[in-house]
Design a protein that fits this description.
With about 350 residues, the chain is of the alpha/beta class. The protein folds into two domains: about 110 residues, Aspartate Aminotransferase, domain 1 (Alpha-Beta Complex); about 220 residues, Type I PLP-dependent aspartate aminotransferase-like (Major domain) (Aspartate Aminotransferase, domain 2), CATH 3.40.640.10. The strands form three sheets. Strands 2-8-7-6-5-3-4 form a seven-stranded mixed sheet, with helices on both faces. Strands 9-12-11 form a three-stranded antiparallel sheet, covered by helices on one side. It has a two-stranded parallel ribbon with strand order 1-10. Strand 5, helix 6 and strand 6 form a beta-alpha-beta unit. Helix 1 packs antiparallel against helix 9 and helix 3 packs parallel to helix 4.
Length: about 350
């Protein structure tokens, strides 16, 4: 007898992580290149002996620290193993079989996976000039829509929507939840990209997700969170896998929140390198949209996979999206220089 699997599993794509290779320059996973924050390194040294015990399942200290950091009530905060898990928790709390989830495409590749696992149907709205087409997204909402996700800044294009986001949110029916995924918030220019927590924290149908994986350099410890109305957050907490955020991760995230000056300094270095890298790429003839994240997007179409292999041949790993483009994380200056040398040699290759 063969075990019956859900039919949706046959077409469910697997999440594709950025490549890793010993000794290579890894510009494929949008990680911080600067290592642990000083406060986090000290915390790890003190707490490693405690990993034999179960952590605080409700992450009380971390929830309170996040609430204080953002000036909200603890009951408005839910945590999970990275913001990707938190988005999954939200989907589990909101979606019933056949419900629709609207998001731009291409955006974070986990969104259609999360939607399918929750039993929903993905409604992918094409980007316009590499940016979310908010008008088209609003037009895609039907009576079956239960969730709308806006990745801002967007992964993998790095582009962002600005003041128009408020008008978009106003169009969304009150019974549809809007998730604004701000994983790359710290790299965005606040004069261009609104802080969704400030703009929408009082709206009962808006939830904002953030992560400690990027600017806070805790990608390996897996901590993310959302902030929203307490009624929604209570449901989101119920869908979390028990103990998914380890005790070590909880304490390191608390320490990271206290190292904000160093976070800002590192983000400024990354933004400066991002802009330098983008400027050189444009001089080489690449069409690079303006990025508000810690990476740049090269919409090279069918050349995506060959371009990535060209870089990998010299131990520089970037993230291709076959037939669409290549996402390149901003690394240290010398890492970016190695990538730019390869980008230049690719641009000057003889065409057959």
């Amino acid at each position: 007898m063969t075990v019956r699997l859900r039919p949706a599993m046959a077409s469910l794509p697997a999440y594709v992580a950025g490549r890793k290779s010993p000794g290579a320059v890894v510009l494929a996973s949008n990680e911080s290149p600067y290592g642990l924050l000083p406060a986090v390194a000290a915390t790890i040294g003190r707490l490693t002996s405690g990993v034999s015990r179960y952590p605080d399942m409700t992450a009380t200290g971390l929830v309170e620290a996040i609430a204080t950091y953002h000036g909200v009530a603890p009951e408005q905060v839910a945590v999970g193993a990275g913001s990707v898990e938190v988005v999954g928790q939200i989907a589990s709390a909101v979606i019933d079989s056949g419900d629709e989830v609207v998001f731009g495409w291409r955006a974070f590749e986990a969104y259609p996976i999360i939607t399918t696992v929750a039993g929903g149907t993905s409604v992918k709205v094409p980007l316009r000039d590499h940016v979310h087409d908010l008008d088209a997204m609003a037009a895609a909402i039907t009576r079956r829509t239960r969730l709308v996700i806006v990745c801002n800044p967007n992964n993998p294009t790095g582009t962002a929507v600005g003041a128009e986001l408020s008008a978009f949110v106003e169009q969304i029916p009150d019974d549809v939840l809007v998730v604004i995924d701000e994983a790359y918030h710290h790299y965005a220019d606040p004069a261009v990209v609104p802080d969704a927590l400030l703009a929408f924290r009082d709206r009962p149908n808006v939830v904002v997700t953030r992560t400690f994986s990027k600017a806070f350099a805790l990608a390996g410890l897996r901590v993310g969170y959302c902030i929203g109305a307490s009624e929604i957050v209570t449901a989101v907490r119920k869908t979390q896998v028990p103990f998914s955020v380890s005790g070590l991760a909880q304490q390191c995230a608390i320490a990271a929140l206290g190292d904000e000056d160093e976070v800002r300094r590192r983000c400024a270095l990354t933004v400066a390198e991002r802009e330098r890298t983008a400027a050189v790429l444009r001089e080489l003839g690449y069409d690079v949209p303006a990025s508000q994240a810690n990476f740049v997007w090269l919409p090279v179409g069918d050349d995506a996979a060959p371009f990535a292999e060209h870089c990998a041949g010299d131990d520089v790993l970037v993230r291709p999206f076959a037939g669409e483009g290549v996402r390149v994380t901003t690394g240290l200056p010398e890492e970016n220089d190695r990538f730019l040398t390869l980008a230049e040699s690719w641009s000057r290759r003889p065409l057959s």
